[in-house]
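User: Can you help me understand a structure? I only have the sequence.
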Amino acid sequence: MTLPHALGIFGAGIVAGTINTVVGSGTLFTFPVLLAFGYPPVTANVSNTVGLVPGSVSGAIGYRNELKGQTRRAIPLATASTIGGVTGAILLLSLPPSAFKTIVPAFIAIALVLIVLQPRLSRALTAHRGRPRDRDRVGPVATASIFASGVYGGYFGAAQGILLLAILGLSFEGEDLQRINALKVVLAGLVNLVAGVVFVFAAHVAWLVALLIAIGSTIGGVLGARYGRRLPPAALRAVIVVVGIFAIVRLL
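Assistant: Let's start by predicting it. Here is the structure, written out as tokens:
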């Protein structure tokens, strides 16, 4: 590995860690860089997943205040994410890379629509029920959706954060978007962690690549938590939409 390649991977890790903490979709920055440097797609995906785990940890630490009081909802959702992540990692090692490729842009587009319409949908659902629901209650639809996002995240992971934000926003009506984002960081990080463990034992990891991304994403996670937490809901929603549109363009 040449010095320019190392610096490029390290820089992509910083960007990915920042974007993953604020929104999600950091893989869309690191994965193409690794492909451009000649790494096979599966090796690039596997090494990228392992490398992004520390960034999720630093991001979650930065969001620790927003995570307070979310234990009741976090435990079942974390369980669903963990199982989904393992399932997705196994699918990556078992299925051809084209299996999900055609439907990924559609998933992201749907998630973006839900993000934009989330406040209006939440008000409509609350009015329909006549009273606010228990914000900490995790229903079967939310659990199944989080599991599905975990499968997707374990398989590839690009824009998993956007999917999680859409699911969590509709599942916990009226909740502050920053608290939802904090929970998203934890769930996406868990998916990366368990998928990474599977890859360490069952796939080829380019360890120098993973290390460079890990260091970069750790720095990015700190930056993302520091500045992302200051964004008002409308601004955070706008960032999500911009990154999501970028993701769709890149994947198409």
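Now, to help you interpret it: The CA atoms of residues 139 and 214 lie 34 Å apart. Residues 128-132 have pLDDT under 50 and may be disordered. Let me know which part you'd like to focus on.
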